[in-house]
Design brief:
By secondary structure, the protein is of the alpha+beta class. It is built from 14 helices and nine strands. About 10% of the residues have low confidence.
Length: about 375
C-alpha cells in the first residue's frame, strides 16, 4: 500500500500535466484498492480497474492498455517511481526526433527508497536482432511508445519476462527503439525479489519466449539464448561493481579510510575488464580478517544445515521472500570471502557451501514463483 501511493504520487508530480493513470488491480487483498480509490477520488485523471478473480499480470496489464485513451502509452509498476520531469523530457525527446518507441536510463533503490549506487544506462538504440541476442536493456518503468503511430500492443501471457516479450512484439512494427540516456526513474529492489534469477532458472522462460512465442527454430533459439546469457552476465558484473564502488564510497565517507582504493575500483569499471570478469567468471572480492571469515562460516552453517523446504509448507509468501533474501545475503557474503585457491581443502569446502546455498535458493525460488502466480 505504501509503495503504490508513492508510485501514484510520482505520476501526479509530473511537470507534464496531460496524462491519465489507469491502475489495473488483479484482485489484491492488501488494501491497495482502498488506497487507489482514495487517491482517485481527489484526482479524476486516475482510473481504477478492478476484478473479482486473479487474471494474472499479463491480463491485468492488457486491461489497462485496452482502456488507455492517450496518444502515448507508458508503464509503471506499483512499487517504482518516476522523476518529476520524466514524461516531459521523454515526450519532448520523441516529438523532436520523431521516434515512436523510447526508453530512458534508471536507477535502483531499496525498500527504504535509498539509492543503491546502481544506474542502468540507456543504449542509444536497439533493434529486434540486438535484443534477441543481447537481451533486454529496456526498463519497463521507462518505456513510452506512440500508440497513434504503432497501434496498441498487448502483453503475451507468459509467466516471466512478459515485458521483454512485449518489446520484441513491438519491434516487429518498428525498426528500432531509442534511448534517452538520462536517469528519469527509480526501480525498487525488494527483499527476496526473484525478478533477477540465475541463468539455469531463466532458460526455460527464454526458451518459451524464443521458441514458442517468437517461433525461432531450435538452432536459432539455442544460439540466441547462449549469447543473451553471456551479455546478461556482463551487465550483472557491471552493476555489481557499481554497487561495490558505492558501498566503499559510503564507508570512506563514514570512516575516512579509503585512500587510493576508490581509484582502483574506478579503474576496474573499465568495460574491457568487466567483460573479462564476466567471461572468466572472476569475482571481485574484498579482503577480510580471518576472524570475520570464521564468523561468516558459522552463520552459513546455521542457516543452511538446518533448512528443509518441507518445513515451509505453512509459510506465507512474505516469509518465503524474507528467507530468500537472507540466502542471497549469505551467498554474497560467501562470494566476498572466497579462500585462496592454494588452500585446496578450504576452497573445496567453500564451493560445497556455495552450492548448498544455491540449492536452497532454487527450492525457495520455485515455491515463491508458484505462490506468486497462484495469487495473480
Amino acid at each position: 500500500m505504501e509503495y503504490i501511493a508513492q508510485s501514484i504520487r510520482s505520476v501526479q508530480n509530473q511537470t507534464y500535466r496531460n496524462w491519465e493513470l489507469i491502475v489495473a488491480d488483479d484482485n489484491s487483498t492488501d488494501g491497495t484498492v482502498d488506497t487507489v480509490r482514495s487517491m482517485a477520488a481527489d484526482d479524476n485523471r486516475i482510473q481504477l480497474l478492478e476484478t473479482d478473480i486473479n487474471l494474472g499480470p499479463a491480463a491485468a496489464r492488457n486491461r489497462a492498455i485496452n482502456a488507455a485513451r492517450g496518444d502515448y502509452i507508458a508503464f509503471l509498476d506499483s512499487d517504482d517511481i518516476w522523476f518529476p520531469d520524466k514524461l516531459r523530457r521523454q515526450i519532448s525527446f520523441m516529438e523532436q526526433t520523431g521516434y515512436d518507441f523510447t526508453y530512458t536510463a534508471y536507477e535502483k533503490i531499496n525498500e527504504r527508497s535509498e539509492k543503491m549506487g546502481i544506474v542502468v544506462s540507456a543504449p542509444k538504440s536497439v533493434n529486434y536482432s540486438s535484443m534477441l541476442y543481447r537481451g533486454d536493456p529496456i526498463g519497463n518503468l521507462t518505456v513510452v511508445y506512440d500508440a497513434t503511430k504503432l497501434g496498441k500492443f498487448y502483453v503475451p501471457d507468459i509467466k516471466k519476462r512478459n515485458d521483454f516479450a512485449l518489446w520484441l512484439k513491438i519491434m516487429h512494427a518498428c525498426e528500432c527503439a531509442y534511448g534517452l540516456n538520462e536517469v528519469l526513474a527509480s526501480y525498487r529492489v525488494r527483499s527476496g525479489s526473484i525478478s533477477s534469477m540465475r541463468k539455469s532458472k531463466l532458460l526455460k522462460y527464454y526458451w518459451k519466449l524464443y521458441h514458442d512465442i517468437e517461433k525461432l527454430s531450435n538452432v536459432k533459439a539455442s544460439a540466441a539464448m547462449v549469447t543473451l546469457i553471456f551479455f546478461k552476465s556482463i551487465r550483472q558484473t557491471d552493476q555489481r561493481m557499481q554497487r561495490v564502488r558505492n558501498n566503499f564510497k559510503i564507508r570512506r565517507n563514514g570512516e575516512k579510510k579509503m585512500g587510493d582504493f576508490e581509484e582502483q575500483v574506478k579503474n576496474a569499471m573499465d568495460i574491457a575488464t568487466a567483460m573479462k570478469l564476466a567471461k572468466d567468471k572472476v569475482e571481485i572480492t574484498i579482503e577480510r580478517t580471518e576472524e570475520s571469515k570464521t564468523e561468516t562460516v558459522i552463520r552459513i552453517d546455521e542457516d543452511v544445515d538446518d533448512f528443509d523446504i518441507d518445513d515451509t509448507e505453512d509459510w506465507t509468501l512474505e516469509q518465503l521472500r524474507d528467507k530468500y533474501g537472507k540466502m542471497e545475503d549469505e551467498l554474497d557474503e560467501l562470494e566476498n570471502n572466497e579462500p585462496d585457491d592454494e588452500d585446496e581443502e578450504a576452497h573445496e569446502s567453500w564451493e560445497e557451501r556455495c552450492d548448498d546455498v544455491r540449492d536452497i535458493m532454487d527450492e525457495l525460488e520455485d515455491k515463491i514463483d508458484d505462490m506468486e502466480y497462484a495469487e495473480k
